[in-house]
Design goal:
The protein is mainly β. The chain has one domain. 0% of the residues lie in helices and 57% in strands. The protein has no helices and 7 strands. The strands form 2 sheets. Strands 1, 2, 5 and 7 form a 4-stranded antiparallel sheet that branches. The protein is globular and about 40 Å long. The chain starts with a strand and ends with a strand.
Length: 92
């Protein structure tokens, strides 16, 4: 939601815990949002388990519509791993 007078922008933020995945693995996230009825790629980044922080902060730069986050690991040992996450609405 955007309030022009107050200048507030509500933005979804997803916090993903990758600390339990294979140390040294590179975890890539890709974020998609719905734009005019179609899922569009908007952001990606890489994190290395054990080097970068255990919590990935993913900002889905949208205030409405659907959000899809995909996580990929370059280590096959992470296939099928459960990844805890938290979804929050950050207001600026």
């Amino acid at each position: 939601m955007y309030y022009a007078a107050g200048g507030l922008l509500g933005m979804p933020m997803i916090l993903v815990n990758i600390g339990d995945l294979t140390p040294g693995a590179t975890i890539t996230y890709r974020a998609y949002i719905t734009i005019f009825g179609a899922m569009r790629f908007v952001d990606d980044d890489d994190y290395t388990v054990g080097v970068d922080p255990d919590i990935m902060a993913i900002f889905a730069w949208t205030n409405k519509g659907q959000i899809r986050i995909e996580l990929y690991s370059d280590n096959a040992g992470d296939n099928g791993a459960a990844i805890p996450y938290e979804y929050a609405l950050k207001t600026y």
